[in-house]
Amino acid sequence: MRPEALFDYFSDIERLPGIGKRNRQAIEKLAGTRTRDLLFHLPTGLIDRRYRPTVAAATPGSIATLEVTVEEHRPSQNRRAPYRVICRDASGELTLVFFNARGDYLRKQLPEGEVRLISGKVEHYLSQVQMTHPDYIVAPENAAELPAVETIYPLTAGLSGKILRKAILAALESVPDLPEWQEPSVVAREGWMPILDALHAIHEPDGPEDLAPRSKARRRLAADELLASQLALAIVRERTRKKRGRRLQGSRHIRDRILAALPYKLTGDQKTALDEIVGDLESDRAMLRLLQGDVGSGKTVVALLAMAAAVEAGVQCALLAPTEILANQHLETLQPLAEKAGLRIALLTGRSKGKPRQAVLEPLAAGEIDILVGTHALIQGDVAFKDLGFAIIDEQHRFGVQQRLALAGKASAGIDVLGMTATPIPRTLTLTVYGDLDVSRIMEKPPGRLPVDTRVVALDRIADVAAGIQRAVASGARAYWVCPLVEESEKLDIAAAEERYASLKGMFGPRVGLVHGKMKGAEKDEVMARFQRGEISVLVSTTVIEVGVNVPEATIMVIEQAERFGLAQLHQLRGRVGRGSGKSSCILLRANEIGEVARARLKIMRESEDGFLIAEEDLRLRGGGEILGTKQSGLPEFRLVDFAEHADLIELARDDARLIINRDPELKSERGQALRHLLYLFERDEGVRLMQSG
Length: 694
Ligand code: ADP
Ligand code: MG
Known about the structure:
42% helix, 7-stranded mixed sheet, globular, CATH 2.40.50.140, binds magnesium ion, 26 helices, Rossmann fold
């Protein structure tokens, strides 16, 4: 149960003043609909209204608050001319300018002969001092309505800053303080204020220094968010580790057969990674390891050999993939080798129904299947293994804690879990995303890979690009054409892809195909298969091909509006080519006009193929969680952390979480109770539920 003190934090924002149905919808898009969502919507800047010069002394272009007497209204003579109000102080005259004004309203706001505080941007026009549409017009007795320092928030269509600000301030007043969950010595050392005070400080800043990532308030909030996430991960880890692992000691005979059948030798990194994984299998500690390796680095074969070792020791294995396409592809790659080595392998996805499904479930329960490859369909209730001992989760960051636990629930004893990821997460972030687990890295690429020739081309040269592809296709090449990512809407992504498909169809006729995320699985597979067989030469897609797809014959990758993608994602997309022996190229089509950071980011792509370096550089340039394309990758979202600025807090949170779990694993102490609040507030409460489930 969520602690009572948090009820108001989770109540709907509709109860706040100024929030009707429409505004609620706009805020939902922006932040969410609970009070806490609004409180975590941080300002990005501020307007300082404390500059109070005389009219004559006010610097043109500045934001100023002027105290003037209203002298005369000069209504507009025709519809296009503005309505003017002449005001004055001892130093000179100020003209207020209003377009499309309602005279009666202005007369009420600015009665002739009265004094008003006027705040807005000062302009000089033909030696007159004027202000067009002032931000504030306030009578002196209501001076408190004029904020000295006004916060600026990210907005969305149909929502005004004033409404949002008012709602946030009301939200701040509507919630109680919470018990202190941070370690007292840290609070003392850092000089942190309680969380509610920190929120107040940020939403009602005294100056820009309060909003800087290094301000005490910002650091406190970042530390809270990080501690919540580290603690949740620590609880899960503790749970997994508590169950003793089994010693899975294989005889090597299946592994030897696979190695003999491989047309190549393992790279040094592959061998090291495999040794580490097998070491975990053989120990009595439950494995919790991440295998990290760039696209094309050869993780699949390492996974197969590791599963073979587990099967030798007499248990079954599961390989969990995030999409049907990937699950299918894993099966296709693994099957030939598995068969040669005498491993029994099967596929189970959401599409397996009725008889075919039974044809997998029965032998699975009887222990006649060694390796089950599948999507999350694999963790459903009626799927029973005879003896599941080892699970591999591909693209692990796409699965939540819940799913990982469900998988563990399929095993009678402690299960060994290996995550795999190609997302080049910088070291500083691995900890944040995965917590404190063991990591094996494959840095070295299999030999013989040719570098991918990457070019950045402006969109107005798209016709040249298409013509170039036409020539390449005529001599047998295959190309991917990835369409832009339109924020907030998959529908728009698809529309863009369909449009491009239609225009390329004019050039390529039936040799162009389209796949996107809303297509039915079978339809998608059919198009992919035709591309694989070479019946389609140009595959237009949204980012559904992002992970894992393997068509070695494809040598051209075009990415439209590349500047909109995260670098990690561009890198993954580019990894789809350069897999075979042919020379490959990647064309990053950019908007004709792009900013400096965007330019620098694309330059990194042109100059490097090292996923980790790219990720580090992207982090440096953009400084934030954006780097991982959080929305696309399904990584937990961080709203208060600035990864470039708060790096030191990550380790602090990790160490603290570890200590907490050692000292008070059930979170029963006074601080433990406070920490439960923290977990709920940041919606990392799987951890709490887990403790209660025993
Ligand atoms: P990942 O899953 O890490 O993106 P894959 O496992 O799909 O990469 O491997 C990419 C390609 O490299 C596959 O075609 C695989 O057969 C090949 N490969 C893997 N290891 C080696 C190696 N040591 N030498 C040569 N080729 C390899
Ligand atoms: Mg792979």
